[in-house]
Automatic annotation (TrEMBL):
InterPro entries: AmbAllergen, Pec_lyase, Pectin_lyas_fold, Pectin_lyase_fold/virulence, PEL. Its EC number is 4.2.2.2. It catalyses: Eliminative cleavage of (1->4)-alpha-D-galacturonan to give oligosaccharides with 4-deoxy-alpha-D-galact-4-enuronosyl groups at their non-reducing ends. The lineage of its organism: Eukaryota, Viridiplantae, Streptophyta, Embryophyta, Tracheophyta. GO terms for biological process: pectin catabolic process. This is Pectate lyase. One of its GO terms (molecular function) is metal ion binding. Binds 1 Ca(2+) ion. Required for its activity. Keywords: Calcium, Lyase, Metal-binding, Signal.
Length: 285
């Protein structure tokens, strides 16, 4: 598939199955698609001379609020498509990342991003200042977390990046994810009560493995070892929106194998992304 650079595309992908698979949260995907179109139409109707609207229903949902920074959790109500019900850390406490270094994969230190993402309770994670976070191992997230980079320039770069494995309700917004490397052959904590041995990872920007209710919005992603965003092994109920992707070979993989039948029920919405320069293939595959 040849994709010209600097082309904004809206794709609505439906992966349907003739049999009802329990991992599919939506039985009538056409209704979800109609709802997406309706919200886009609605946003466009509100474009006006004195309106702050852009016609992008996700952005218009929160950016028109001048006090968005004190109403951060409202973002959780702004998704469209199959990942719409991802609540992330909504109704949880705000957790502020103050420490960009000191990554300890087994005993994370309070104040680091890793300490926030492994917790059991819902958390809305924000950043005290601009920072570059170079992780030593994959960042293995626990359920009900939002990583909200608004208001700061946050890079997760130069080491292993984000892994969303067998968890649900994750929102990742406004993070620069790039130059992701493989991690592994190491112990990594995934919750306050558990850590385990990780084999060598793919080196994805965001790896979704058996994850559901996931929303990745307004991230920039580039130059990783494997995929920028890969969703495999029964992952579903995902929205990938407003991301800016550049300089990368295998951009996006949705399901790794035709013979893995659980993925025939995968439901993903891909909308308002910018497939930019220097991309090679899988946009998506
Ligand atoms: C959205 O607007 C287009 C163009 O006006 C129209 O064809 C379509 O039916 C509308 N869709 C919905 C779901 O409102």
């Amino acid at each position: 598939m040849a994709i010209p650079s600097l082309l904004s595309l809206i794709f609505f992908f439906l992966f349907l199955t003739s049999t009802l698979i329990s991992s599919s949260p939506v039985e009538d995907p056409e209704l979800v698609v109609q709802e997406v179109h309706r919200s886009i139409n609605e946003s466009r109707r509100n474009l006006g001379y004195l309106s702050c609207g852009t016609g992008n229903p996700i952005d218009d949902c929160w950016r028109c609020d001048p006090n968005w920074a004190s109403n951060r959790q409202r973002l959780a109500d702004c998704a469209i498509g199959f990942g719409k019900n991802a609540i992330g850390g909504r109704n949880g406490k705000i957790y502020v990342v103050t420490d960009s270094g000191n990554d300890d994969p087994v005993t994370p230190k309070p104040g680091t991003l890793r300490y926030g993402v492994i917790q059991s309770e819902p958390l809305w994670i924000i950043f005290a200042r601009d920072m570059v976070i170079q992780l030593k191992e994959e960042l293995i997230m626990n359920s009900f977390k939002t990583i909200d980079g608004r208001g700061a320039s946050v890079h997760i770069a130069g080491g292993p990046c984000i892994t969303i494995q067998y968890v649900s309700n994750i929102i990742i917004h406004g993070i620069n994810i790039h130059d992701c490397k493989q991690g592994g052959n190491a112990m990594v904590r995934d919750s306050p009560g558990h850590y385990g041995w990780r084999t060598i990872s793919d080196g994805d920007g965001v790896s979704i493995f058996g994850g559901s209710h996931i929303w990745v919005d307004h991230c920039s992603l580039s130059n990783c070892v494997d995929g920028l965003i890969d969703a495999i092994m029964g992952s579903t109920a995902i929205t990938i929106s407003n991301n800016y992707m550049t300089h990368h070979d295998k951009v996006m993989l949705l399901g790794h194998s035709d013979s893995y039948t659980k993925d025939t029920g995968m439901q993903v919405t891909i909308a308002f992304n910018h497939f930019g320069e220097g991309l090679v293939q899988r946009m998506p595959r």
